[in-house]
Amino acid sequence: MSNVPGSQNAKVLQLPVSIDTARTASGRERAQQRHPSSLTSNAAPSAREPQATVHALNPDYLPPIAPAEPGVGWRERTAESVIDGAAFVRERLTGDYDVDQFGFDPHLTDSVLLPVLRPVYDKWFRVDTTGIENLPREGGALLVANHSGVIPLDGLMTAVAVHDQHADNRHLRLLAADLAFEYPFVGEMARKIGATVACNSDAEALLTRGELVAVWPEGFKGIGKLYRDRYKLQRFGRGGFVTSAIRAGVPIIPVSIVGAEETYPMLADVKPVARLLGLPYAPITPLFPWLGPLGMIPLPSKWHIEFGEPISTEQYSQADADDPMVVFELTDNVRETIQQSLYRVLARRKNIFQDY
Question: What's the predicted TM-score (pTM) here?
Fold first, then answer.
């Protein structure tokens, strides 16, 4: 090759390309297709566009995959939890929260009690719901449900379902038996989550001010029935809930709960032990009392809660609330509606642990 000083053109001699050189060039072309950042020539970078020296990549080389972080945004969620926890403690210490006349503490319920119940609802019982749109967006309504399960977990799961599935995250006020408030810790927590004594005066007061109120008219007869009688509704008492709904002028919403019967299959009731302990029943289940405290862990049955269409009470007068025939007829109508709903849900259930 010759080069004349000051000349702008240079004479370049063409050299024969060997087979090895052709293979190398072909390999570099494939490398460029896979890694566009690799250089395909040995030409020097221009002065206007400086480039870094990049070595040709092996086309068969695959970089190791870095292990993924434990969940997208987990640091942010952890930081938010810490901030929320600190805010909760500050509000509790400063008294910056409200408790109503019945003892309901929405601040504690939303921050502590519902988060504790939510994993049981989502992961253990895997609760499905239908008909949540039948609950009013505002104003009062009386939810009437079947009762079962030895321990009244159905009330707690229904409260989580209403709050989490409702478009406005409404709280459910539970009407509970007197026995629930006779134990120091249990009674206090029941009040804080929104429960009150199942009496007409409390029910009417809550309904009149526009609350969603739930009642389980079967009472202890429902949660204490034997497994062979599962999903067979017991007597609904004297219809006190109907009287409250008519006087408050709110609709009645039938609720059917399937799955709670299998959490503690009650095989027998040891009545002498129940009388000795002052309990409504002393259950014998496949696991309790044989496994001791472990026998009190509920079985992970699959739950389904169906909120039926509202039954209006607008056509009734205040005088009808004191008419035994009117109360009995409406009570029987609600009871039959729930029973038929239970049969429909049970008919499509695969087994007690599988999805519907």
Answer: 0.76
Residue 152, phi then psi, degrees to nearest 5 = -70, 60
Q: What are the backbone angles phi and psi of residue 313, rounded to the nearest 5°? A: -120, 10
pLDDT in tens, 240-267: 999 999 999 999 999 999 999 999 999 9
Q: How far apart are CA 82 and CA 186, in angstroms?
A: 28
> What is the C-alpha to C-alpha distance for residues 181 and 163, in angstroms, rounded to an integer?
23
Cis preceding linkage at 289, omega within 30: yes
- Listed in sequence order, the DSSP H helices in 166-317 are 184-193, 200-208, 220-223, 240-248, 271-277
Render pLDDT for 106-151 as a digit per residue (tens, 0 to 9): 999 999 999 999 999 999 999 999 999 999 999 999 999 999 999 9
- pLDDT tens-digit map of 237-247: 888 999 999 99
Residues ≥6 apart with Cβ < 8 Å to 202 = 102, 175, 196
d(CA 43, CA 4): 21
Q: Alpha helices, DSSP H only, in 96-231?
A: 106-108, 114-119, 153-165, 184-193, 200-208, 220-223
Distance (Å, rounded) from C-alpha 131 to C-alpha 146? 16
Helix (H, G, I), strand (E, B) or coil at 226: coil
